[in-house]
Write a structure and sequence with these properties.
With 369 residues, the chain is α+β, with helices and mostly antiparallel strands. The chain has 10 helices and 19 strands.
Length: 369
């Protein structure tokens, strides 16, 4: 395990403060409860997303979203000051000073609208951006019978999709595949697939770092057309929507159970790894495990334990509700205790071996079988 003494703040885990921009839909109380924070008397009920380690701005609704740090700087400013310390040599060489990831806690206090997100090719052509918005949901809590919807049950020709969008009625939701969810479900939502999240779900969301959404439902949420269609002509915006049928086998291929993991393992289908990675660390009792170094949004979802970095920093006590950003410069990370952690990471740089300063772990303990 790396024992390099700390030389900058970039080597220490950072506790992430609440970052909840106001959104058009309701929610947010579950986030406060999860993070062990009181619900303010003047809580406006429209803070349903906690943007974690964000370098991304809202497309509309005021443009907030970027993560502030305790020293008064923003995360993008910190990354620019020490990109390799935060992100690693290989990441910076391939991706530059951009984490390639936005992580959120999301609490659906009401059903979200039917919407979709463009892929990278569409975003490059029409939105001057290299990222689309593939996303994934790791369900942390859900009311009994809670439902999400992904993909059209039957193919919708362009004119039929446009007619449903014009009608703005319940037929849009009825056209999607319903999926009843509970704690432990993990669902990948590829860019283009129409979807919605039902009321009563708390989840960790990983996504490409954009806020591009085509709001197929918009009237009932009071969204103007400029917002709903990304400032594009309706016909152009709707061309980003995957209108082919997503059959039951296709839906099944997008699902996993992160609570099936014991020890350390991936939470999502392999298809997600070109966009982001989600790693589950699930330990019992006195178990411990060392995980590889890397820029990681770390959400403790159950239990208590300790987290020790390879940067000579004293062990941190961690408990359910804690949210940490661990820089690449922190080195390898040992997690121990009766604890479950979700680690949200960027894609692995392709074809770039680790530099000499990144030795492999040498003190790796086995997790529970």
């Amino acid at each position: 395990m790396t024992t390099t003494p700390p030389t900058s703040r970039t080597q220490a885990p950072v506790a992430l403060s609440l970052n909840t921009p106001r959104r058009f839909y309701r929610g947010g109380e579950r986030i406060l409860v999860f993070r062990g924070l009181p619900v303010p008397d003047d809580f406006d009920g429209h803070r349903p997303e906690d943007w974690l380690a964000s370098t991304t701005h809202l497309f509309a609704e005021g443009g907030d979203g970027v993560t502030p740090l305790d020293d008064g700087t923003t995360l993008p400013e910190a990354l620019a000051a020490d990109p390799e310390g935060w992100l690693g040599v290989g990441h910076v060489a391939q991706f530059g000073v951009e984490p390639q990831l936005l992580t959120k806690l999301l609490d659906s206090g009401e059903r979200l609208p039917v919407h979709s997100h463009p892929d990278a090719a569409f975003a490059a052509r029409h939105l001057d951006c290299e990222h689309g918005k593939t996303e994934a949901w790791l369900i942390v809590d859900a009311d009994p019978g809670a439902t999400v919807w992904v993909g059209f049950r039957d193919a919708l020709p362009t004119d039929e999709l446009a007619a449903l969008v014009d009608a703005q009625d319940e037929r849009l939701l009825a056209a999607l595949n319903p999926i009843e969810v509970s704690r432990g479900d993990a669902i990948l939502v590829p860019a283009g697939q129409p979807h919605a999240i039902g009321e009563g779900v708390l989840l960790v969301e990983l996504q490409e770092p954009t806020d591009f959404s085509v709001m197929l439902e918009h009237e009932r949420f009071g969204l103007d057309l400029e917002h709903a269609f990304l400032g594009l002509p309706r016909r152009t915006a709707l061309a980003s929507v995957a209108s082919d049928a997503l059959p039951p086998a296709g839906v099944a291929a997008l699902r996993r159970r992160w609570t099936d993991i014991r020890g350390v393992g991936p939470a999502l289908p392999a298809e997600a790894e070109q966009f982001f990675r989600a790693q589950v660390v699930r330990l019992n009792g006195d178990d411990s495990v060392v995980v590889d170094r890397g820029f990681a949004v770390t959400v403790v979802v159950e239990g208590r334990g300790t987290l020790t970095t390879g940067a000579g920093v004293s062990p941190l006590d961690i408990a359910a509700g804690d949210v940490l950003l661990i820089p690449h410069g922190a080195g390898d990370v040992r997690i121990a205790g009766d604890v479950t952690v979700l680690r949200c990471l960027p894609p692995t740089p392709v074809g770039r071996p680790a530099p000499p300063s990144d030795p492999p772990p040498t003190d790796r303990a086995s997790g529970p079988s």
